[in-house]
Amino acid sequence: MADEDLTEVLTAVGPRLRALRRTRGTTLAQLSETTGISLSTLSRLESGQRKPTLELLLPLAKAYGVQLDELVGAPATGDPRVHPRPFTRHGQTFIPLTRYLGGLHAYKQILPPRPQGGGSDEPLEQRVHEGYEWLYVLSGRLRLALGEHDLVLTGGEAAEFDTRTPHGVANAGDQPVEFLSLFGAQGERIHVRARPAGS
């Protein structure tokens, strides 16, 4: 690999790490606790002030449940297939449907049934972060709390929202709920349908 190519790959690692952490909803403090890497080192790594090394990248790849080549941007092989590596967070399973860490991220998410006796009208924990999200329910009943709104989406229904609006999701039924989630960390919008010109 030429020196300029190596420099380009290493320069891209920081933004990839930041995008991955934000997509997973993890703070630097949480990541530091999980990996044993100091907060300042993680911060400098994401900002490009610290050169990525195997000693730093291996525990990060393990913490995120991704291959090392996903962190450094392995050369394209021409094979378009994605080999998803499911991971579990806050009791729900995420199956990545995209392999690149920049731009839009697509996941299939599976929420287990709510616990027996768990009320469907209990307040949901809501959080905010930069970005824009689009959800499409494949099966089951998905509860979406969005600011003051509390909705239940069923199979075939979609929703989109700015993630700076407080939001949270939960299973509203007694069967697992499966849904697709497309998320743009930089605020990219998903256009569900074209608007006629002049409208």
UniProtKB/TrEMBL annotation:
The keyword DNA-binding applies. GO terms for molecular function: DNA binding; DNA-binding transcription factor activity. Residues 17-71 form the HTH cro/C1-type domain. The keyword DNA-binding applies. Keywords: DNA-binding. SMART domains: HTH_XRE. One of its GO terms (cellular component) is cytosol. Pfam families: Cupin_2 (PF07883), HTH_3 (PF01381). It comes from the Bacteria. This is XRE family transcriptional regulator.
